[in-house]
Amino acid sequence: MAPLTRRRSINNIPNEMNVEYYRQRASAGLIITEGSQISTRGVGYINTPGIYNEKQVTAWKKVTDAVHEAGGKIYIQLWHVGRSSHPSFHNGELPLSASAVNPEIKVKTYDGTVNSVSPKEMSEEEITMVINQFSNSSQLAIDAGFDGVEIHGANGYLLDQFICDGSNHRTDKYGGRIENRARFTLDVVEAVAKKIGNDKTAIRFSPSGIFNGMRDSDPKKIYSYLVNELNTFDLSYVHFIEPFQTDDNRYFYPNNYLKYGEVAPYFREIYRGNLMICTSMTKDKGEILLQDGVADLIAFGKPFISNPDLVERMKENSPLTSYDVTTFYDGSEKGYIDYPFL
Questions:
Q1: Which end of the chain has fewer beta carbons closer than 10 Å to its terminal beta carbon, N or C?
Q2: pLDDT tens digits, the chain, 342 residues: what are they?
Q3: In the 8-state DSSP scheme, what is residue 209?
């Protein structure tokens, strides 16, 4: 089950509704939770959970216990949104990022939808602080009973902002050359793996991502370097997102970006460890990727929202329940824990 932001955690603390949601989906071979902030400065969305204090650890423990009792495994996704936030989440302070480049997006806050702002370029001291926060949150995740963690390096959030040259204009050791732009991500992976073990550490990338105003002059080059460097870590897995496509199969990506269906084969040639792939997957698509050795794990997102027993439905070739987009983020039980089982 792929990570899915659902915005049902009041005050950034998981609750009983969250426990039931994950319990219902425990038949997934592995659940990856919604993105969970590593600090208050990592917040950028309404009612998203965190994993940086003891109240959150205690609350998440109820989730992991429920999933384990139902026979499942669960990783938490560690998240820092970086510039994809707004000062209203941070008592007026600017969001943090690689450079002071406004993503030019809309941000949904508790006071309504507002325009994004130019973030604060992080100092090297702040970079070290955030690396430590990823490390500390990974230990809190293990304390909360998680089987491992997935570092969020995708979708235009903080790690992605360092990777891509459209958002990283730095001239120090964290900017410029691809080795420098990859450094922050590799430092985070190293710190987390050292804290909880390589076998419990994973990371997610969107190498063709344009969400949250992201751009890069040569994404295949930077991600090829980055993924090759990850071969030395023997991680639990590396998770790739195929680029989104429209219903009529049109794309809105630069010509030098990998298109839908090209990401997994491209990085399979580079990455020697466990490779997970997601986006618009079906049972048949996933089976072909597994049988051909292109991927080792297939992640399903939206189908799990409306089909808590997706695994059983796939086994029996049963029809899937359609999801209701209007309830993805509305905060109530409707469209969250009321979808039917077979």
A1: C
A2: 999 999 999 999 999 999 999 999 999 999 999 999 999 999 999 999 999 999 999 999 999 999 999 999 999 999 999 999 999 999 999 999 999 999 999 999 999 999 999 999 999 999 999 999 999 999 999 999 999 999 999 999 999 999 999 999 999 999 999 999 999 999 999 999 999 999 999 999 999 999 999 999 999 999 999 999 999 999 999 999 999 766 655 556 788 999 999 999 999 999 999 999 999 999 999 999 999 999 999 999 999 999 999 999 999 999 999 999 999 998 899 999 999 999
A3: -
Cα–Cα dist 208/244, whole Å: 9
Neighbouring residues of 58: CB distance < 8 A, sequence distance ≥ 6: 144
- The Cβ of residue 341 has, within 10 Å, a number of other Cβ atoms equal to 10
Partners of 204 in beta bridges: 152, 239
Amino acid in position 124: E
Burial class (CB in 10 A: 0-12, 13-18, 19+), 247: exposed
pTM of full prediction above 0.85: yes
Task: Please choose, from the candidates 3, 8, 10, the residue with its C-alpha nearest in 3D space to the C-alpha of residue 74.
Answer: 3
Domains of the chain (ranges, CATH numbers): 10-327 (3.20.20.70)
- Gap between the terminal Cα atoms of the chain: 18
- Active-site residues, by number, are 157
Closest CA to 31 of 74, 95, 88: 74
